[in-house]
Design goal:
The protein is α/β, with parallel strands linked by helices. The chain has 27 helices and 42 strands. 26% of the residues lie in helices and 22% in strands. The protein has a 13-stranded mixed sheet.
């Protein structure tokens, strides 16, 4: 744990003579902790941190520049026992001479000091094991650095090297070498001397080739050579049988060697943005072995372009989408055409290109399902009705949706019913700079011979114009000319034939067709399946662990089933029993298929299963009427408004998705939820969320101003951003589609008297303002006034917390979350590991952290297939910060504990995290006895419970494991929380 130097805790005191060097700094427990100290936290701490030994001698020192103070470098002469020194951000231009006298140093970081050269006498630091001089202006290393024979890690990123520093070849113990972002053009063959090298980063240089000798390094695990000019890979790459991480993206590679197949331990293989024949954008989602086999299959066989794509026809209900498609297909207009009930799919040739035309139902109730079928490499027809008023909000909704799922896909706006309004003009200039609107076609779905001469003169043969416009755009779609093997074309044709007579194609039939055509092995078959899914031939989710697919599905069969369920009324509005769903789908859907479709609805966040039964609740089918409740009890705590007006568009699906995401926190003592809102409870806080679509805002009222309220608010923020990812991705700089506004109430806490933008309060805080002026309106009198509101009071209540990623900070965050989960003990006691992991994940996200769950990475116990990590926490740079592996235990089962521990230390930590977490959800009576037995499963276990908590339901401990190729041990943090036993 972190302790200040004047802490009352029993930490060693520093010698008086060294005190001026660390005055105001934060004290750590030991130098090992300093090695892992979080850099971002360091930069935010006042001045720095340090540690001392029992004799008061400095053992570690991390310093940053602070205003109006200078470091007395002479004091470093007294630091004879210093092991870790980290200097960053000083405008020095040189290495302080005093640093080079500390001969006990094992780790030295001199980052962003504007250093131009390393002094010769660095050779005095013969104990040095780790050297980091990144972000400087260094162009060479002195020859006598060859004396640093104990160096195991050296970082030279972001400097001015043009030649590879060959003196490094004398560092025979080197395990990690990073030379990223320099100007190196050649790696000498002498690199073969570095027999212990496990990590090599030469990304962002000017390399045109990788020498064969690199791949003779038997311990090499990580190789980053991205963003160079490499044009070929040597066959010797297959010798690197321990390679797990290989990044070759953004080069000029045109072919991969067969020997890549030998890299069986590879878990991350990035080869994007090269000159390779990538068959489809879905290629980048494949596993490493699948990517390699796909590339080799294309290289080694006769290929031809796919020349197929989706044409997706979207728009509101009854604008004539189906009629337009019928006319494109050459059919006569049908005045009695019924609305599409789900998705209708037809195919049409446009010169040598084939388009699969998807006609989406326009009813608002179905819009939430559309997004899961919108794909890249598609052409979109957005159909509007010339008879209806211009509606910017409607247009933005559809354009944003298209852009977020297929950013560069072209959009043709089709203005239908122009025969009824010849003067209608679509405002193309309003949208052309933001969205890929490539054409506007004014048309009428009516038969040409039925139109008046005026209409014919105005719009001509508009269906023919639309046909030509589509024909012009299809060849421009990214990837449509990409080559795929002839054998893949054969399988695609077979699937299209099967679809004519089958709604469901069993996976073994698909695999048999692949075998016949010569598409051999699961990786290639999966790669092809993903391509067929992307162009709309079939629907398949081969890698989704929630949808363990045994069939390949006809798209219409899936979508129509989903729409049948969503559209069908329920006896209890919104609530569907399994029997009710079985009745709805009794024709054409077996019981296992019905269960799979329910899982699909859950995956799409259209519904969730009630914890008390297997019934499915679909929020969009809930009653729309808001129940009566005492509003004043909710308005005396934290209150905020998410205001979409003039910023984005509040869509009707937002609240239903919020209900799905937040149903675990519903207040059971209320009516729970309705179509436009829900009641929440967490600890001592109750809350209500209300969507006001006419006023384009979501109002949040919480009953308290404590930590429980802040947790609910942060969780809401996080989930709302997840739901609105389509609008966020479509906006410049990923801007949110709403403004957060803090609600200002009068003394009665009934009616809001004003709102103030959260970002405005934050700006005032940064400028040091004590108060901020807010315009308020008193509804009783109609009086408008300006009042002063205290900035710190508002910001302190609503502020998004600053995040730290140190082992201490993350331990406390996870511990606090787990302790809060004990409030749900009665529910958790009945839940499985994945269910509790969901609660943990959601709570960490609500605290502001980025979490990936069930992430495919690392290796399974066999070391052959990719495994699933429970939770992966990402840092502020989008990199992996730590792993969280969890298990449920009713007793101390050694085999279960060993399995989870082994997965965490051997298979999952592929990025060399300094610490990871093993969490146990215990459900036992005698917790102390359980904890005693648990500790005996690990060597060198340290019980640290007293350092973290005084709660009897939680225990904390550490043990250390060695990291291959590194001198630094890895810490496994064990946290055990007891939820008790079932009553």
């Amino acid at each position: 744990m972190l302790k200040k130097s004047n802490s009352k805790e029993n930490l060693p005191k520093i010698k008086n003579g060294l005190l001026p060097l660390v005055r105001g700094f934060m004290q750590l427990s030991d130098s090992a902790e300093a090695l892992d100290y979080d850099l971002r936290r360091f930069l935010n701490d006042k001045g720095g941190v340090f540690s001392v030994d029992d004799k008061g001698e400095l053992t570690s020192l991390l310093i940053k520049p602070i205003e109006e103070s200078n470091v007395d470098w002479n004091l470093l002469l007294e630091c004879k026992y210093l092991q870790v020194l980290h200097l960053e951000g000083f405008n020095l231009g040189y290495v302080p001479e005093e640093v080079l006298t500390i001969t006990e140093l094992t780790a030295l970081k001199l980052i962003n000091l504007k250093i131009k050269e390393i002094p010769d006498n660095i050779c005095n630091l013969t104990s040095l094991e780790s050297l980091d001089v990144s972000n400087n202006e260094i162009f060479e290393l002195p020859k006598n650095t060859s004396n640093l024979i104990n160096l195991k890690k050296i970082t030279l990123d972001n400097n001015k090297f043009t030649l590879f520093p060959e003196v490094i070849f004398n560092f025979f113990n080197l395990g990690g070498l990073s030379l990223s972002n320099n100007s190196i053009e050649l790696i000498p063959s002498g690199i073969a001397c570095l027999k212990k090298l496990a990590l090599l980063d030469v990304s962002f240089n000017r390399l045109s080739a990788l020498p064969t000798e690199i791949f003779e390094l038997k311990k090499l695990v990580i190789l980053a050579a991205n963003n160079n000019s490499i044009n070929a890979l040597p066959e010797a790459i297959g010798y690197s049988d321990k390679l797990e991480f290989l990044n070759l993206s953004s080069n000029r590679i045109i072919k991969v060697p067969d020997s890549l197949l030998k890299l069986e331990r590879l878990f991350m293989f990035d080869i994007e943005d090269n000159l390779l024949p990538i068959p489809d954008l879905s290629f980048h989602d494949l596993e490493p072995s699948e990517k390699i086999q796909t590339l080799l299959a294309i290289q080694n066989s006769k290929s031809s372009p796919l020349k197929q794509a989706k044409v997706l026809v979207v728009g509101d209900e009854r604008v004539g989408k189906t009629s337009i498609i019928n006319r494109l297909l050459g059919n006569q207009h049908n005045e009695n055409q019924t609305s599409t009930q789900g998705i209708d799919i037809s195919s049409l040739d446009f010169n040598e290109y084939k388009a699969h035309i998807w006609d989406f139902a326009g009813q608002e109730l179905t819009h939430q399902t559309h997004q899961f079928f919108l794909t890249e490499r598609s052409l979109y027809l957005y159909v509007i009705d010339a008879q209806k008023e211009d509606n910017q909000a409607r247009d933005l909704h559809w354009f944003n949706t298209i852009k977020s799922y297929s950013e560069n896909s072209p959009i043709i706006v089709v203005v239908n019913h122009c025969d009824q309004n010849l003067n209608y003009q679509f405002d193309l200039q309003r949208y052309q700079n933001t969205f890929q609107v490539v054409d506007v076609i004014y048309t009428s779905a009516c038969n040409l011979n039925s139109l008046s001469e005026d209409v014919k003169h105005k719009i001509g043969d508009s269906i023919d114009k639309l046909n030509k416009s589509i024909s012009k755009q299809l060849p421009k779609l990214p990837g449509i000319e990409r080559q795929i093997p002839e054998s893949w074309h054969i399988v695609k044709s077979a699937m299209e034939t099967f679809k004519e007579t089958h709604n469901v194609i069993e996976k073994n039939i698909y695999e048999d067709e692949c075998q016949k055509a010569g598409v051999l092995g699961s990786p290639l078959q999966t790669a092809l399946l993903k391509i067929l899914n992307s162009i709309g031939t079939v629907i398949a989710y081969p890698n989704d662990f929630r949808l363990k697919l045994t069939q390949i599905l006809k798209p219409e069969w899936v979508t129509n089933a989903v729409y049948k369920i969503v559209r069908s009324p329920a006896e209890n509005p919104g609530l569907y029993t399994e029997e009710a769903i079985s009745e709805i789908l009794k024709e054409g859907y077996s019981h296992p298929q019905q269960q799979w479709l329910i899982d699909l609805l859950i995956k799409f966040e259209l519904g969730f299963r009630l914890s008390s039964s297997s019934d499915l609740l679909i929020p969009m089918r809930l009653p729309s009427v808001m129940p009566e409740f005492d509003k004043t009890r909710y308005k005396q705590g934290l209150n905020i408004r998410f205001n979409y007006h003039r910023v984005g568009l509040l869509k009707s699906n937002v609240l239903p998705q919020l209900i799905v995401r937040m149903h675990s926190y519903v207040d059971e003592n209320t009516t729970k939820y309705w179509r436009h809102g829900l009641f929440l409870a967490h600890g001592e806080c109750q809350g209500v969320i209300i969507s006001d679509e006419p006023n384009q805002c979501i109002d949040v009222y919480l009953s308290t101003r404590n930590e429980d309220a802040r947790s609910l608010l942060q969780w809401l923020r996080s989930n709302l951003q997840k739901i609105e990812h389509s609008q966020i991705q479509a906006n410049d700089n990923n801007a949110l589609p709403y403004k957060e506004e803090i609600t200002i109430y009068g003394n009665n806490f009934i009616t809001p008297i004003g709102y103030v933008a959260y970002e405005k309060v934050e700006r005032a805080h940064k400028k040091g303002k004590k108060t901020i002026e807010v315009e308020v309106n008193y509804p009783e009198t109609g009086e408008v006034d300006d009042i002063d509101v205290e900035v710190d009071q508002l910001l302190g209540l609503y502020k998004t917390p600053e995040l730290s990623y140190s082992i201490q900070s993350l331990s406390h965050v996870i511990i606090n979350v787990l302790l809060r989960l004990t409030d749900f003990r009665s529910k958790i006691i009945k839940e499985k590991e994945d269910d509790i992991n969901d609660r943990l994940r959601e709570s960490l996200i609500s605290s502001g952290y980025s979490i990936k769950d069930q992430s495919r990475g690392g290796f399974s116990g066999s070391g052959v297939r990719v495994g699933e990590r429970d939770l992966v926490m990402m840092n502020q740079f989008g990199q992996q910060a730590t792993l969280i592996e969890a298990m449920c235990l009713n007793s101390v089962v050694k085999k279960t504990i060993k399995t989870h521990f082994d997965k965490l230390i051997n298979n999952y930590n592929t990025q060399g995290n300094p610490f990871d977490f093993l969490i146990t959800y215990a459900k036992v009576n005698n917790f102390d006895s359980f904890w005693d037995k648990y500790q005996k499963n690990f060597d060198g276990f340290r019980d640290l419970t007293r350092m973290y908590t005084d709660k009897s339901v939680l225990k904390v401990g550490h043990n250390y494991v060695e990291i291959d190729g590194s001198t630094e041990d890895r810490i496994i943090v064990h946290i055990v929380i007891n939820f008790g036993v079932k009553p």
